[in-house]
Amino acid sequence: MSNTKQLHRSLGLRLVVVVVIGNIIGSGVYKKVAPMAAELHSPGWVLVCWVLGGIITLFGALSNAEVAGLLADTGGEYSYYKRIYNRFFAFIYGWSLFTVIQTAAISSLAYVFAQSLHSLAAVPPLLSSWAEVSIGGVFYPFADFSVKLTAILLILFLTWINSRGIKAGAGLGTAILLLVFAGIFLIIFFGLGSGQANLGQSFSLQTTNNTPVTFSAIFTAMLSAFWAYQGWAAIGFLGGEIKDAKRTIPRGITIGVLTVISIYLLVNATYLSVLSVPALEELYQAGNKIAAIEAVKSFWGAGGGFFMSVLILITTLGCTNATVLASCRTYFAMAREGLFFRKAANLNDAQVPGSSLVFQGVWACVLVLSGTFDQLTDMIIFAVFIYYGATTLGVFILRKRMPEAPRPYKVWGYPVVPAIMILFCAVLFCNTIMVRPREAAIGMGLMLTGIPMYWWFLRKNKPDNAPVEEAEPKAMVNS
């Protein structure tokens, strides 16, 4: 394939909102209330952390929207960082996406999909005699191997689907999202209307162990909330395929994030109204149970468990698909500048970066074998907030460097809102190192492999490392 082919700007606002929401709503909305309850021992404080997580996410989204409105292009933050900082920092970001942030997101979502599928249909264990084989006592690649194999097959399938064209992937995402919305609103309606519901219980700030909630516990619990909110920035990766991207991306991010915050507060209040904190703590300690399933079973019985397992399957399928769809565009942009594997710069006959999809899919499959769901998600949140802070800092830098540049959107509450976001990112970074040192060390180690890789790519692709400008497509496809 020739790398002179160009991406087509075919996505309008509707599909941008679908991709934003589809990248956010995944497994976290069903699983993360239990670890938050185990950390905080109070239903009211769990909801407070959901609210705080939503506010901080919105602050980051609004700051990102200003930068996107000014610099939108294929690759999202990778393209922004070249303008704000330099090519080296942009590369480290892109490499972090590949090694930790986006590929681990794909892996963990596919892992939860596989868990839910296996809860519906019993599958014989595979390679159970190898389950205790480990790498350094940290990674157990053959533990729960039948679940991991299912997750790998899903990643390969979605990689193939998205290689057929961006409209195919976005269309699948729209259909799945409608089913997810219907399912979540059924839970809220019937859950809060059931005899088991005690909505007042959801807002109690009293802790079950009668000890005060600590600052560190709030930040640790918010790691779980942030996993559930993670993914909204992925729409920036598709900047070269969005019509009027500098206006559409900010609008799509804002609409999508506000929608998700509202849904999360309603559905988590529902869980906490039908399940006590001690019950949620037991679910978390059990390790193999999903809070949302147990909540719905409390008012719908065994049929509720089946309903939730199907809904989780559909939701994680949609979120995995949205993440596969968006993420590979950054590696494509990097490869076109000689800063990634050369083949990733190719577009296939469907005008999508097929080789980049393959690189992404293979590494995501490796990460499935590397660890558990919670290990992967803590690694992601630690890494991603470094770059949320860097993008938000870019608002200040660009205001000073390009004061007269037209900005389709300016962040609300400047300079207070972006300053709060930057401060929060710094505190969360430090807190994660203290409370999750292993996950932080693994995530940082994978990110830092980008330093030697940067020089290796520069030397290997030296004749081709000048940026390739993308021409504006002649034909526009309506969404």
From TrEMBL:
It is a multi-pass membrane protein. One of its GO terms (cellular component) is membrane. Its main location: membrane. The chain crosses the membrane at residues 12-30, 42-62, 88-113, 133-158, 170-193, 213-240, 252-274, 306-332, 352-373, 379-399, 411-434, 440-458. The keyword Oxidoreductase does not apply. It is found in: Membrane. Keywords: Membrane, Transmembrane, Transmembrane helix. InterPro entries: AA/rel_permease1, AminoAcid_Transporter. Pfam families: AA_permease_2. One of its GO terms (molecular function) is L-amino acid transmembrane transporter activity. This is Amino acid permease.
